[in-house]
Write a structure and sequence with these properties.
heterodimer, A: about 120 residues, alpha/beta, Udp-n-acetylmuramoylalanyl-d-glutamate--2,6- Diaminopimelate Ligase, Chain: A, domain 1, five-stranded mixed sheet, 5 helices, globular, B: about 325 residues, alpha+beta, CBS-domain, Heat Shock Protein 90, 2 domains, five-stranded antiparallel sheet, three-stranded mixed sheet, 10 strands
């Protein structure tokens, strides 16, 4: 899915441009960065309400080309400057995580399907 | 110049032309456009337009009302107004407002170039997904951006040639190893991940495959975050990189883990709500580390400290795998 399709589906705006055009294959919506790292896939959009710089670090480690912040949480300046430095795109969406994920899924972005059970 | 073309030729099967083609196809208009553009509302006068054009030596500008593009007005429209002596008239009477040719911030420069070609115009306003004006793009902008990108590629290609094609190829000794050390401060979330990112870059630089670099980086990142969250005084990350094995040690001087077996269980955590708010402390860190490492050993004593030893075997598939084309 193109960035434009994502922006349109979730009515999102771009805060930090992506350095290159990306064809997003999947998305992962979570506020738990370890979960994101566990489920990382190439060309994945990270959808999160966590706006501190760790979201960008996690995207960098997971090789997610862009992060979408939900429920209108405008990220602090250090998050935006880290994203620019690392070449990670930043999007802002005013829907809640649940709604943003639903809109993206309905527009055709894939998830990870069913995962193995981890007993705690 | 000749040397540069030789380098370009070595970058891919098709050489320079393939690279230019790729750039044109991949580079979004947003990357080449001028983002800060002068605009005027449609109610501004042609006199105001004249002053703005003269002051900034520009030949035209977009007309914007409520953030929406409503027209384009150029020096030709100004001449027209001068001819009929109507400098006091609002811009809306002279601007072009129908069949406006625009570019989209996220489309590729290839599509923008095609539109320039088809319409013969010299500049296009750039709109975002909400149809708001975000910049202007000219053919010259595209040419300059492509030249810049090519320059970057030359530099990269030069660095690439200087770089080992396979993991550790450039270094020869009876026992080669690269050691990296990083201090991690307690509570320093702002710089958390810095050591891991540096180790990842170092691995890529010496020729490790992206997959190997990624699993080392993810495991190290989790260990680094643990040092930030759980220690009294932070700790150290030591990386020992050898041709067939990478060892990362994360160690600290307390508080120590009472029951390592329990700590390794998925979902088990002692993290505070503050840490959880930072997106960590859900008890999945060690699970993640286990998944990424080939061998994991954790030694800990309460009141003494903890030492997490992560070993990554470098398989033949993981060395020098990046495309050497």
């Amino acid at each position: 899915m193109t960035l434009d399709e994502i922006l349109e589906a979730a009515d999102a705006e771009v805060l930090v441009e992506l350095p290159f055009t990306v064809d997003f294959e999947s998305a992962c919506a979570s506020d738990l960065m370890s979960d994101v790292l566990l489920f990382t896939k190439p060309n994945m959009l990270l959808v999160t309400g966590l706006t501190n710089p760790q979201a960008i670090r996690t995207a960098d480690m997971a090789e997610a080309p862009a992060v979408m912040f939900v429920r209108g949480k405008y990220p602090p300046a250090e998050t935006l400057s880290l994203a620019e430095e690392m070449g990670i795109g930043v999007l802002l969406c005013r829907y809640t995580m649940f709604e943003a994920a639903g809109l993206l899924y309905a527009a055709g972005l894939k998830g990870l399907g069913q995962l193995p059970i981890i007993r705690q | 110049m000749k040397r540069q073309f030789a380098l370009l030729g070595s970058m891919g099967r098709g050489g320079a032309l393939t690279k230019i083609h790729e750039l044109v196809r991949e580079m979004p208009v947003s990357r080449v456009m001028t983002a800060s553009v002068f605009t005027l509302p449609p109610d501004a006068t042609m006199q105001q337009l004249k002053e703005l054009l003269r002051e900034h030596r520009i030949s035209g500008l977009p007309v914007v009302e409520d953030q929406a593009l409503v027209g384009i007005v150029s020096i030709e429209d100004l001449i027209h107004a001068l001819e009929v002596q109507r400098l006091d008239a609002p811009i809306r009477e002279f601007m072009t407002s129908s069949n406006l040719v625009t570019a989209h911030a996220q489309e590729s420069v290839m599509e923008a170039l095609r539109r320039f070609e088809k319409t013969g115009i010299g500049r296009m306003p750039v709109l975002n997904a909400r149809h708001e004006l975000v910049g202007m793009v000219t053919r010259g902008d595209i040419t300059l951006a492509l030249l810049d990108a090519l320059q970057e590629l030359y530099t990269e290609a030069e660095a690439y040639q200087a770089r080992p094609q396979r993991f550790f190829d450039a270094l020869e000794s009876e026992s080669t190893s690269l050691q990296l050390r990083y201090r991690v401060e307690k509570g320093d979330f702002a710089r958390g991940g810095d050591a891991s990112a540096k180790i990842k870059r170092a691995l890529l630089q010496i020729g490790a495959s992206p997959q190997l670099a990624r699993r080392v980086a993810i495991a190290t990142y989790e260990a680094e975050v643990n040092l930030i969250i759980h220690t009294h005084n932070g700790g150290m990350i030591l990386a020992d990189i050898q041709p067939n094995e990478i060892t990362i040690v994360a160690q600290d001087s307390g508080p120590g883990i009472a029951d390592v077996g329990l700590a390794r269980q998925p979902g088990w955590s002692t993290a505070t709500p503050e840490v959880r708010e930072m997106g960590f402390g859900a008890g999945m860190g060690l699970t993640n580390i286990e998944r990424c490492t080939d061998k994991l050993s954790i030694w800990s004593a309460v009141g003494v400290g903890t030492r997490v030893l992560m070993t990554f075997s470098v398989s033949p598939q993981e060395i020098g795998e990046q495309d050497a084309g």
